[in-house]
Design brief:
Acetoacetate decarboxylase-like; two-stranded antiparallel ribbon; 2 helices; about 10% helix; single chain; 14-stranded mixed beta sheet; mainly beta
Length: about 210
């Protein structure tokens, strides 16, 4: 893809998908339930799309695929921070749907390409708190989505269990803390997840791919 507008984002993310804690996607394996669905929230610490600043904004997305992500036929919906102005909304929609991005460069390019059904983006207030180190997060979009992340618990002792994924070749993160996620969403992509894969990470992406 020819990129006409350069962009870069530093953000904190929480993602909850329907797979087991060791998400097969991260290990080149097929989804353990045979299909994929996920919700993610993003807190943009610093970013730009051309000369449009994106600092401090939030966004979220929901996806569903009937099989593995790489098999396509998926659907997606973006939720954009209602505080964003028209230019910022356009920028975030393009970035999160994989536009203005080199081929295969980011997770958003992959997900966008593998999701031919793109429901119209919605604009809502988004509350998102993510503590990557503590493996805790809460995403709240009134009437649309609630997602909570917490540490995995030892089934015998109840103690917090800590594990990371270190992924030098990832198109999303260099290192992610793994926890447990529970989510409920409404609308065209209605999800109901409980005690499944939760991912907490600092990400640094651009139109060329992962930066960190």
């Amino acid at each position: 893809m020819t990129v006409s507008i350069e962009w870069e984002i530093k953000a904190t993310e929480f993602t909850n998908c329907n797979c087991i804690y060791a998400c097969p996607c991260q290990f080149n394996a097929l989804p353990d339930k045979g299909f994929c669905e996920a919700v993610a929230g993003y807190q943009i610490d610093a970013g730009h799309f051309g000369d449009v600043r994106l600092d401090g904004l939030r966004a979220a997305a929901m996806w569903r695929w009937p099989g593995a992500v790489h098999e396509g036929n998926g659907s997606m919906q973006l939720i954009i921070d209602e505080r964003a102005d028209a230019a910022q909304r356009d920028a975030l929609i393009k970035i999160l749907s994989g536009q203005e991005t080199e081929d295969m460069a980011t997770v958003w390019w992959i997900f966008g390409t593998m999701s031919p059904t793109k429901h119209p983006p919605a604009f809502h207030p988004i509350t998102l708190d993510v503590d990557v180190e503590a493996r805790r997060a809460r995403l709240d979009i009134p009437g649309v989505a609630t997602s909570v992340g917490e540490p995995i618990r030892n089934p015998v002792t109840g103690a917090e269990h800590r594990v990371r994924i270190d992924f030098p070749q990832s198109f999303e993160f260099k290192q992610a803390e793994i926890g447990s996620g529970t989510s409920k969403t409404a609308g065209p992509i209605a999800l109901d997840l409980a005690g499944t894969y939760g991912q907490f990470a600092h990400i640094h992406l651009s139109h060329k791919g992962r930066m960190n």
